[in-house]
Inverse folding.
C-alpha cells in the first residue's frame, strides 16, 4: 500500500498546475506545438514515457514543463541565456538535449536548422564560468554533441575551447574535454585537422594530447595530410638559422642549436649577403640601427621558443603512446625540419624494418647525405621505405652500453632532451 501511495504522489506531482510567469507561458506554447517541435526522436521518446510522465497533449492544452533544463542548478542555464532562452527554437533544442533518450543527430540537426539563434545560444552556454553540477552532466554532454552540428566556422572554436578546458563546462571535467575532442573530430571540413593537430601537439595534458592524436589519425589517411602537421620554418635555412638585417651596418643571426636552444647574436655587417663581421656582446646601439627590426628579432626568438616547446611536447607524447611513424613522414616532419629537427635529432629512436618485429635503437646521424641511425657500438642503421620509427622509451642498459652511448653522444655533440638511457 505504501508503494501505491508513493506512486500516486509522483503521478499527482507530474500533473500539478503550470508555473507562473512569461517563461512558463513560452514553455506551454512550445509544448502546444506538439512532438514536431522536438523532432521524431523526441516524439518517440515521449510517446513511450514511463508512468507519471504523460505524452504530448492535444494542441492548445496547457501543461507544465516536463523537461527541466531551465531548472537545472537553480535556473543557472536559463539565467545565462537570458532572452535567448525564449528565442525561436532554442527551448526545443535544449529540451532535446535534456531528454534521457538515445541521441539522434538527425533530430538534433533538424532542431538546429529550425532555430536561427541556436549557435548564439550554444555559444552562451560554453561561456559558463562555473563548473556544472552532477545533475547537469547528461545535459552538458548532449550540448557538446549539439555543438558539432553547427557550421564548422562556429563549431570548431567552441569545441577547441571546451577541449582546452577554458570553459566552465569542461574546466573541472576531463570526460567533458575528451567528449569535446570527439565532437570536434565529427565536424566536417578542413578546419578540423589543424585544430586537432594543435591539441595533439601543444596541450599540456597527456590525456588530451592522446585523445586528439587518436582522432586525428582516424580523420586523416596519413599524418602528413594534416595542413599544419609541419611546424612553420620561420624562414630558417637547413642549418636552422636565419640572418636578419637590423640596419645598414648590423645583422642579427637567429639560430636554433641541436637540443632546441634558441640563440640570437648580433654582428657588424655590410648587408644581407655579406659574411658575419665582428660579433657584438649585445644589441647594437648605433644610431643607424633599426629598432623595429630589433624588436622583430626578439619576437621571432619568442615564437621559436614556443615552437620548440611544442615540438618537445609532441615527442614526449609520441614516446608515451609508442606512436609509430612512417620513415618518409619522420624525415620530412621531424629530422630535416629546421625547427622540429633540432629537437628530434637529440632523441633516441627505434626503427622496425618492414615485415619484421625487431626494433633497433639508434641516434639520428647523417652519413653520405642520407639520414639514418647509429647504435651505441657505432653501427650504422640504413633506413628503407616501408620502415617505421618511434621515439625510444626509457631503457635500462649495461655499464658497457652506457659507456657506448656516452661516447656516441659526445661525438655527435648531443645531449638527449628526453630521459631514455638508464644504467643498470
Amino acid at each position: 500500500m505504501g508503494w501505491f501511495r508513493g506512486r500516486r504522489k509522483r503521478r499527482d506531482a507530474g500533473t500539478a498546475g503550470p508555473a507562473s510567469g512569461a517563461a512558463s507561458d513560452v514553455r506551454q506554447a512550445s509544448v502546444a506545438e506538439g512532438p514536431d517541435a522536438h523532432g521524431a526522436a523526441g516524439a518517440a521518446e515521449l510517446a513511450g514515457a514511463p508512468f507519471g510522465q504523460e505524452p504530448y497533449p492535444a494542441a492548445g492544452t496547457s501543461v507544465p514543463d516536463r523537461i527541466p533544463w531551465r531548472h537545472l542548478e537553480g535556473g543557472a542555464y536559463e539565467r545565462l541565456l537570458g532572452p535567448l532562452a525564449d528565442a525561436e527554437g532554442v527551448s526545443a533544442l535544449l529540451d532535446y538535449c535534456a531528454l534521457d533518450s538515445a541521441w539522434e543527430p538527425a533530430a538534433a540537426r533538424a532542431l538546429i536548422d529550425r532555430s536561427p539563434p541556436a549557435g548564439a545560444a550554444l555559444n552562451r552556454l560554453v561561456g559558463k564560468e562555473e563548473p556544472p553540477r552532477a545533475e547537469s552532466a547528461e545535459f552538458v554532454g548532449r550540448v557538446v554533441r549539439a555543438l558539432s552540428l553547427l557550421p564548422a566556422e562556429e563549431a570548431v572554436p567552441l569545441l577547441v575551447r571546451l577541449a582546452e578546458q577554458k570553459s566552465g563546462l569542461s574546466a573541472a571535467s576531463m570526460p567533458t574535454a575528451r567528449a569535446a575532442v570527439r565532437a570536434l573530430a565529427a565536424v566536417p571540413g578542413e578546419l578540423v585537422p589543424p585544430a586537432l593537430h594543435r591539441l595533439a601537439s601543444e596541450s599540456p595534458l597527456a590525456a588530451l594530447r592522446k585523445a586528439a592524436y587518436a582522432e586525428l589519425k582516424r580523420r586523416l589517411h596519413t599524418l602528413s595530410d594534416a595542413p599544419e602537421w609541419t611546424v612553420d620554418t620561420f624562414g630558417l635555412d637547413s642549418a636552422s638559422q636565419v640572418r636578419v638585417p637590423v640596419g645598414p651596418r648590423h645583422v642579427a643571426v637567429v639560430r636554433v642549436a641541436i637540443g632546441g636552444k634558441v640563440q640570437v647574436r648580433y654582428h657588424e655587417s655590410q648587408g644581407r649577403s655579406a659574411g658575419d663581421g665582428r660579433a657584438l656582446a649585445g644589441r647594437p646601439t648605433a644610431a643607424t640601427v633599426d629598432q623595429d627590426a630589433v624588436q622583430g628579432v626578439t619576437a621571432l626568438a619568442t615564437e621559436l621558443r614556443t615552437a620548440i616547446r611544442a615540438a618537445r611536447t609532441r615527442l614526449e607524447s609520441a614516446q608515451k603512446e609508442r606512436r609509430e611513424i612512417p620513415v618518409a613522414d619522420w624525415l620530412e616532419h621531424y629530422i630535416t625540419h629546421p625547427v622540429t629537427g633540432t629537437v628530434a635529432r637529440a632523441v633516441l629512436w627505434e626503427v622496425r624494418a618492414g615485415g619484421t618485429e625487431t626494433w633497433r635503437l639508434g641516434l639520428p646521424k647523417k652519413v653520405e647525405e642520407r639520414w639514418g641511425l647509429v647504435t651505441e657500438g657505432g653501427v650504422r642503421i640504413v633506413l628503407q621505405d616501408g620502415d617505421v620509427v618511434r621515439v625510444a622509451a626509457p631503457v635500462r642498459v649495461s655499464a658497457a652500453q652506457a659507456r657506448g652511448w656516452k661516447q656516441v653522444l659526445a661525438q655527435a655533440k648531443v645531449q638527449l632532451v628526453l630521459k631514455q638511457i638508464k644504467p643498470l
